[in-house]
Amino acid sequence: MPVAVAMVLILGVMVFAIALIGLVWAIVFLLPFYAYVGIAVYLVWRSNRRKAELEATIVREVERQRLFNEQEMGAWRSSLEDEGQKPPAEDVQRRFDTPRDQPKR
Fold first, then answer.
1. What is the rounded distance in angstroms from the CA atom of residue 91 to the CA atom of residue 97?
2. d(Cα 11, Cα 26) in Å, to the nearest integer?
3. Residue 105, CB half-sphere, CA atoms under 13 Å: how many?
4. From CA 79, how far away is CA 85, in angstroms rounded?
5. Which residues, at least 6 apart from 86, have a Cβ–Cβ distance to it below 8 Å?
6. How far is it, in rounded angstroms, from Cα 95 to Cα 75?
7. pLDDT digit string (tens) for 64-100?
């Protein structure tokens, strides 16, 4: 019977040692691997998020620029329409040449 108890104890210590070696192996080799994978996943996620933010910023800037261009085009059209309604330059020059206060007859 003491031999059986000794065999069970030896077998238990061997199982415990194998489990402990497996745990140490996992900590030494697998933990850094999982850390690298986790860091890579985080960096890819952050890159995608920044790309999405950049695309949203570009869309907003394009819309702002389009509105600005429409306002600018409206101003140009209004200016051209106003120029079409103005008298010719000769009439304007003639008005400047005549005195303002003409004597009454």
1. 10
2. 22
3. 0
4. 10
5. 92
6. 28
7. 999 999 999 998 888 888 776 765 556 555 555 566 6
Residue for token digits 């745990």?
23
Q: Tokens representing 30?
A: 């697998």
Q: Which amino acid is at 104?
A: K
Residue 102 phi/psi, 5-degree rounding, is -85, 140
Longest CA pairwise span in the chain (Å): 150
- Give dist(CA 34, CA 50) in Å, integer: 24
CA angle 97, 100, 105 (to 5 degrees): 110
Angle at 63 between CA 60 and CA 69, to 5 degrees: 140
